[in-house]
Amino acid sequence: MRAIMQHETGGPEVLRLEEVPDPVPGEGEVLVAVAAAGVHVVDTAIRRGEAGPFGVASLPMTPGREVAGVVDLVGPGVDPSWLGRRVVVHLGTRNGGYAERAVADAHRLHAVPDGVADGEAVALVGTGRTTVLVLDAARLEPDDVALVTAAAGGMGSLLTQAVRAAGATAVGLAGAPKLAHVDADVVVAYDEPGWGERVQVALGERRPTVLFDGVGGDLGRAALELLAPRGRVVSYGYAAGAGPTPITQDDLWGRSLTATVPLGPGLPALAPLEARALASGWRPRLATFDLADAAAAHAAIEARATTGKVVLTVSRPG
């Protein structure tokens, strides 16, 4: 089979398409014929040799932990009814997603609902489950005004959909070249001077009550300054690379803000979150690349040139 192999750490060029033996599922495992594989910003850090959620990766390896496709083979102890079914699975501590076939634990499988494409399923099982967790922490109400940073990204696009579905007002922030890809009630370019004032003009007498902060740094801080008293900050990342948004005692005591970090130690069981995301009805925005172009996908992520969830698609001859 064809797979992306990484033999050394470095730039995107270390990801190379190679012919490798098909993996064989063991006890409690299945073999998935991959149709789509998710690409995450964490994958780029792992490629560079940085510690990911499960530590520094052992090389050589095939990256990727999110796949959708059809169960090709079941290992010992696996219900044979999975054979031939469309599934999506987060591989957990395994690598191996950037390939034509991948081994997965059977207990992690989810059947793909009718009407959900393979790439959409991949987005929902990874990015979608995180979105569910973040939304649970936000406790949205119809009278909320939610400020969504990086609203053109994979998670940002899901959050704006969820905010509007809850009857609340979505304010989407994105770089000027990506504004056309933001589905929100108010859309503002945060890389142009005076963006905070433009948000306030658009809202009139209302002020944001919730901040979904996946960017951090100075941008996160500027967004936090727009929050009304008793506003809620839900922080789930710092994609700007400058660390989490700084929050002071005065923010908490003087403005009665609350701050929540729903990710990290003590996470609830992930499978129910994945199932809820798959059943949500969200339509993820996708940026698709062919499997052979995995290096280009990584380069695009690092250049912040993508909109939506980045997905590798696997095309087979015939």
How is this structure best described in words?
With 318 residues, the protein is α/β, with parallel strands linked by helices. It has 2 domains: 2-113 and 279-313, Medium-chain alcohol dehydrogenases, catalytic domain (Quinone Oxidoreductase, Chain A, domain 1), CATH 3.90.180.10; 132-260, NAD(P)-binding Rossmann-like Domain (Rossmann fold). It is built from 8 helices and 15 strands. The protein has helices at residues 41-47, 118-138, 154-165, 195-203, 217-224, 249-254, 270-278, 294-302; strands at 2-6, 15-19, 29-39, 66-74, 86-90, 101-105, 110-111, 145-148, 169-174, 186-189, 210-213, 232-235, 258-260, 286-290, 309-313. The strands form 3 sheets. Strands 3, 4, 5, 6, 7, 14 and 15 form a 7-stranded mixed β-sheet that branches. Strands 10-9-8-11-12-13 form a 6-stranded parallel β-sheet, with helices on both faces. Strand 1 and strand 2 form a beta hairpin. Helix 2 crosses helix 3 (154-165) and helix 2 crosses helix 7 (270-278).
